[in-house]
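Dear support,

I submitted the protein below through the web form. The confirmation email said the job was done, but the results page showed an empty box. After a refresh the structure appeared. I'm attaching both so you can tell me whether what I see now is the final result or a partial one.
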Amino acid sequence: MTAMICPQCQHENSEDRLYCNICGVLLQQEAEEEPPESPASAYRTPSGNEPPPLPHGGFGHITDSTFSVFGAHYLPFILIALLPQIPLLVGGIMAQLGIGPAFTLIDAALEQGVEPSEPLQISLWEMIGIILSFALGILAGGATIYAAARHFLGSPVLVQRSYEYAWARFPRLLGATLIVVLILIAPAVLSAFVIGIPLLTFAIVVLLFVNHAVAIEQNGPTDAVRRSWNVVQGNWWRTFVLLMAIVLAAIGATLIIFLPAGLFMPPILLAMLSTAFSAFITPIATIAITVLYFDIRVRKEQYTHNDLARELGELDTAGPQYETGG
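What the results page shows now:
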């Protein structure tokens, strides 16, 4: 396959790319061979219908689009998000029942005149649950991104297919996540001092679309980091505001639900409630970020349904994609 050199960043792109994988600039050779989508040459679903429009609007439109996607496929999205929660739930229940060994993480120092406190401990089952949940969470994130993308192609959203798609890209998703974690370590440590907080915030925002660059654009881990940076460029405040809205909404919902629940519910039932809550709120947050990702690409790159289908590898299998005006 002939490589196409981007005229802006000099990245080598495959010959089927319409936009550069890294900087998103229109590749002129592809633009001449395949004109952008127009009303007379529009994407059609396998059944020949017009798919849902790609997001392109203000925050009100992004909010409406997020809940429209979730509402249309709430059961598959919840089931996708439920899988990573199961190891945490099982590990927590096993720890509550006192099954398995426990390890002391922090042994409270005894100071003169101060009552001794309980040491911080974690059970073996909790440790296993955390590790499995981390890995499955990466997988579920990729599956949710793919499922949201299929909604905009007018295709069925299926749990098994979404997980199969994410599993095929799991090494790259894992590698990209680990790179993000490594990048965030330094600003996170510096956040103990005031100077680290804005640095950490900036880094989180510019790295927000790393997994989207892997799951949708098929980038490798390092290219995905650079691609996320490029997508956010010129849209940092827009991305920051949406991210803050998601965080504040999640915190608010958590306080409303768990403050009263924690007063009367036993720990095991509280763990089950937490699992259900996470399975509900996590896909909504991921969909909102995905909707913003599409919105930015539509604005910056004139992104179309055909571009999305091509990136997901579904352009040749989705049925009649074009309807030519006569």
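Response: this is the final, complete result; the empty box was a page-load delay. Residues 54-104+119-308 form one domain.
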